[in-house]
Amino acid sequence: MGTRGTVALLADGAPVDVPRDAARDAAHEELRKAVYHQHEPGIVERVMDWIGRQIGRAFDGVAAPLGGGGNAALVVLLVVLLALAGLAWWRYGAPRRAARSDGSLFAGAEGPRSAARHRADAAAHAAAGAWADAVRDQMRALVRGLEERTVLSPRPGRTADEAAAEAGRALPRHAAELASAARLFDDIAFGERPADEAAYRLLADLDHALGRTRPTPVPAGGGPA
């Protein structure tokens, strides 16, 4: 390097004097090329790092009264998570599983029973305030009654949805009510929806109304006669 504001370079083996300012500018220009920055974090990574630092500072500030450190930060994190869970519970209620549409209507029943027996069991459950059991037996009574009247052909493993769809074709005036009854049964029997007296009464009233309706019998294939 020269002593009078120049830099000594070699060009084809011959010394060349370059002014210091020009050499500095050339070096800056060279370092601006992308090849020297290809391994640096991108804008997204820099933003995420900044957010992470801000969250860390916030936790450090809240955890300071607890003595700081990792344990204090963990306590703060748990408190925040519990608060969020409580807010979600208050806003949306207890989580419920979706009703299963493949559940057999008579799954868990103690052997074949007549419609009258299912109605009697439903009434006994209702008297005891066991509304979920009352809804199950009342829906079974409704479908068994349709089978006994040959509106439906008996078929093991039939679901409430299937029974409602088949019966709705033979009883078109009650098709919508039957579909609603099947969804109600599924929600209570398989979806953990709380049962109540209103649900039981709805099924009992529909069962009574269907008993006074003259249907068009549905053959084993499920189509119109």
From TrEMBL:
<feature type="transmembrane region" description="Helical">
    <location>
        <begin position="72"/>
        <end position="90"/>
    </location>
</feature>
<protein>
    <submittedName>
        <fullName>Uncharacterized protein DUF4129</fullName>
    </submittedName>
</protein>
<dbReference type="Pfam" id="PF13559">
    <property type="entry name" value="DUF4129"/>
</dbReference>
<keyword id="KW-0472">Membrane</keyword>
<keyword id="KW-0812">Transmembrane</keyword>
<feature type="domain" description="Protein-glutamine gamma-glutamyltransferase-like C-terminal">
    <location>
        <begin position="139"/>
        <end position="206"/>
    </location>
</feature>
<dbReference type="InterPro" id="IPR025403">
    <property type="entry name" value="TgpA-like_C"/>
</dbReference>
<keyword id="KW-1133">Transmembrane helix</keyword>
